């Protein structure tokens, strides 16, 4: 397996995960009744943390392998940039917003910020996967 092969596999895993979060998980979370919000959000946070760590860990390892291998293939570097965009949106927007949602409860502004960060992550995942396949 080459670094680019590893990147393509990790990018595909990441895109699949992100599509499920965008199309299934967040819409279901948004439909939770206000009275059940805290329990549902806490359960979501506990369940998804391991999966997020695994997916982003594999993606980070593959990106790092591409970068340390000295690859200068533009498509591979764009793929890595897509992964970085998703990771930054997660670390600096989605994760803190989830923290606020856990403390303060659901509100429209926080849910809107979360869905915006999610769209950025999805775009990053698409770029990452598409350009990994082109590399």
N-C termini distance: 14 Å
Q: Which range best describes the helical content: under 10%, 10-25%, 25-40%, 40-55%, 55-70% or over 70%?
A: over 70%
Q: Stretches where pLDDT falls below 50 for ≥5 residues?
A: none
Mean pLDDT across residues: 95
Series of secondary-structure elements, N-terminal to C-terminal: HHHH
Number of strands: 0
Number of helices: 4
- Give the overall shape: elongated
Structural class per helix/strand content?
mainly alpha
Biggest beta-sheet profile: none
What is the radius of gyration? 16 Å
Q: Strand content of the residues, in percent?
A: under 5%
Describe, in plain words, how this protein is organized in 3D.
There is one protein chain. This protein has 135 residues and is mainly α. The chain contains four helices and no strands. It has helices spanning 3-30, 37-68, 74-104, 108-134. Helix 2 (37-68) runs antiparallel to helix 3 and helix 3 packs antiparallel against helix 4. It starts with a helix and ends with a helix. The model has no long low-confidence stretch (mean pLDDT 95).
Reconstruct the topology from this structure.
Elements lengths: L2 H28 L6 H32 L5 H31 L3 H27 L1
Helix pairs in contact: 1-2, 1-4, 2-3, 3-4
């Amino acid at each position: 397996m080459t670094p680019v092969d590893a990147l393509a596999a990790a990018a595909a895993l990441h895109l699949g995960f992100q599509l499920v979060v965008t199309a299934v998980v967040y819409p279901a979370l948004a439909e939770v009744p206000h009275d059940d919000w805290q329990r549902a959000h806490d359960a979501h946070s506990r369940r998804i943390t391991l999966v997020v760590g695994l997916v982003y860990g594999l993606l980070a390892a593959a990106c790092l392998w591409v970068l340390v291998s000295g690859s200068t293939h533009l498509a591979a570097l764009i793929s890595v940039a897509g992964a970085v965009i998703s990771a930054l949106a997660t670390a600096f927007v989605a994760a803190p917003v989830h923290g606020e949602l856990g403390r303060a409860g659901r509100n429209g502004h926080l849910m809107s910020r979360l869905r915006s960060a999610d769209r950025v992550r999805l775009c990053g995942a698409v770029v990452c996967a598409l350009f990994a396949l082109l590399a």
